[in-house]
């Protein structure tokens, strides 16, 4: 079985060195590249695509969100984990909207990073325990589910949008025209009073349409 390859993206060399040491202590995990900016990350991925990209949000120039978007633009199957100091669900939602598969805060224990990498490598989505707690609090708030305003097809399309699929991909998956998907997309936003796709991602997470695995172990 071949090693799991990982690209590290962080503007601090000392931080990258620490991540590399931690990751390469795991059997079968190998760091194959490092980058200190969005542009460098994009070039490194184009040169040698890694199985997992671990990226910080705060970097000089453009942010980690732009790195996610640029890498996903050339490879829709790219699996990207955000590892950042930014705590709070709003940051995580923006990352998932951009196409990330996981979000772990740097205040988390080291094993949370390793657990998230493993989950994403297996095709899942992962969040650190602090973000999972925020999701759980929102779900237990007793509010009426916004999904009650949507029909079955709209719920299905919402789930696909929130998972990061493009209009073209959703149209192909459902054997519908791009125009039909665009109309559904607009209608879903209107019914949910959502101004952006980040709002739709939150609705999907809040309603349990996306399974988020807490990096500490169980589902969020």
UniProtKB/TrEMBL annotation:
<protein>
    <submittedName>
        <fullName>DNA-binding NarL/FixJ family response regulator</fullName>
    </submittedName>
</protein>
<dbReference type="InterPro" id="IPR016032">
    <property type="entry name" value="Sig_transdc_resp-reg_C-effctor"/>
</dbReference>
<dbReference type="InterPro" id="IPR058245">
    <property type="entry name" value="NreC/VraR/RcsB-like_REC"/>
</dbReference>
<dbReference type="Pfam" id="PF00196">
    <property type="entry name" value="GerE"/>
</dbReference>
<keyword id="KW-0597">Phosphoprotein</keyword>
<feature type="domain" description="Response regulatory">
    <location>
        <begin position="5"/>
        <end position="121"/>
    </location>
</feature>
<dbReference type="InterPro" id="IPR039420">
    <property type="entry name" value="WalR-like"/>
</dbReference>
<dbReference type="GO" id="GO:0006355">
    <property type="term" value="P:regulation of DNA-templated transcription"/>
</dbReference>
<dbReference type="InterPro" id="IPR001789">
    <property type="entry name" value="Sig_transdc_resp-reg_receiver"/>
</dbReference>
<dbReference type="Pfam" id="PF00072">
    <property type="entry name" value="Response_reg"/>
</dbReference>
<dbReference type="InterPro" id="IPR011006">
    <property type="entry name" value="CheY-like_superfamily"/>
</dbReference>
<dbReference type="GO" id="GO:0000160">
    <property type="term" value="P:phosphorelay signal transduction system"/>
</dbReference>
<keyword id="KW-0238">DNA-binding</keyword>
<feature type="domain" description="HTH luxR-type">
    <location>
        <begin position="143"/>
        <end position="208"/>
    </location>
</feature>
<feature type="modified residue" description="4-aspartylphosphate">
    <location>
        <position position="56"/>
    </location>
</feature>
<dbReference type="InterPro" id="IPR000792">
    <property type="entry name" value="Tscrpt_reg_LuxR_C"/>
</dbReference>
<dbReference type="GO" id="GO:0003677">
    <property type="term" value="F:DNA binding"/>
</dbReference>
<dbReference type="InterPro" id="IPR036388">
    <property type="entry name" value="WH-like_DNA-bd_sf"/>
</dbReference>
């Amino acid at each position: 079985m071949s090693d799991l390859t990982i690209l590290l993206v962080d503007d601090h060399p000392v931080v990258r060195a620490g991540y590399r040491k931690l990751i390469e202590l795991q059997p079968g995990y190998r760091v194959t590249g490092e980058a200190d900016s969005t542009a460098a990350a994009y070039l490194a991925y184009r040169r040698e695509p890694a199985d997992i990209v671990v990226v910080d949000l705060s970097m000089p120039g453009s942010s980690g969100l732009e790195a996610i978007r640029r890498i996903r633009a050339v490879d829709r199957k790219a699996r990207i984990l955000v590892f950042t100091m930014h705590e709070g669900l709003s940051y995580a939602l923006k990352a998932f909207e951009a196409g990330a598969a996981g979000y772990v805060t740097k205040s988390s224990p080291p094993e949370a990073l390793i657990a998230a990498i493993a989950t994403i490598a297996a095709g899942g989505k992962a969040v650190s325990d602090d973000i999972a707690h925020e999701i759980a609090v929102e779900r237990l708030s007793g509010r009426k589910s916004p999904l009650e305003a949507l029909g079955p097809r709209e719920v299905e399309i919402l789930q696909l949008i929130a998972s990061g699929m493009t209009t073209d991909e959703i149209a192909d998956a459902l054997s519908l025209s791009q125009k039909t998907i665009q109309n559904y997309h607009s209608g879903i936003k209107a019914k949910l009073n959502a101004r952006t796709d980040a709002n739709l991602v939150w609705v999907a997470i809040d309603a349990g349409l996306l399974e988020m695995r807490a990096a500490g172990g169980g589902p969020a």
